[in-house]
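Q: I have 271 residues here and want to know how they pack in 3D. Can you give me a structure?
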Amino acid sequence: MESDNYKKNSAVTPLDDESSDLYIISILASINIAVSLFEMASPIKNSDYNLYSLPLMYGAKVNHLILVGEWWRLVTPMFLHSGLLHVALSCWVLISFGPQVCKGYGLFTFFLIYILGGISGNLTSFLHTPEATVGGSGPVFAIIGAWLIYQMQNKDMISKEISEELFQKAIIAMALSCLLANFGPIDTWANVGATFTGIIFGFFTCPMQRMDNASSKTMQEEGIALVRQHANPCKSLAAFAFFGLVLCSLLYFTEPPLNTMGLEDLLKMSE
């Protein structure tokens, strides 16, 4: 009787976890799509920054506006996209890699990776390019970075076919992102910074999946699936706080590039 109950619980719990993961991933994708629809529904004819919608005008990364106090522009670009193809790319990557990262790291750590990837990507862009840009694909590239570390650390526990398929998708996503960057204010620097953040954060939080002899015997005799070990939430939160402190310190010790228009605006505001 106890063995039957154990089998039943071990079969139900993973399904419940996957349902929760897909629910959160669907919410994130829906937010991105909703914001993109709002962008299309609120056009602006004239813009000094080549940003032609209300969300882009008030939320895109504009360096000199960040310097004069609009700090939220280091966060809001992670929800902004440049057209339907850009948001479609983000949603495709999120749906492709999100469930795998949730399954490996756990939902809490997945969410931290997503948020940290978006912010660090925007900060990377802030420190490297003066152009007004959006970084909606940054968080999903952080997810790709975390997945790369997970599959490297647990390659013996992951199907070779799944790894190869997702690796090909990662290459396609990077190629499409570079291509789309030529047709709109898509932030390549944000994608690069977010990817490296996902890799580093994933390295410090990645759980190692191991199967002892008892588990192996149970799987062979009773066909019970391996219970995965997620990342430690406290460790993930501590790593998130550390990364946050490092990113904040960069704002004090580095000077971002400014375009000519941005410099003129700063001078006018200081008079």
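Q: Anything worth noting?
A: The chain has one domain: 2-270. Residues 1-12, 213-225, 262-271 have pLDDT under 50 and may be disordered.
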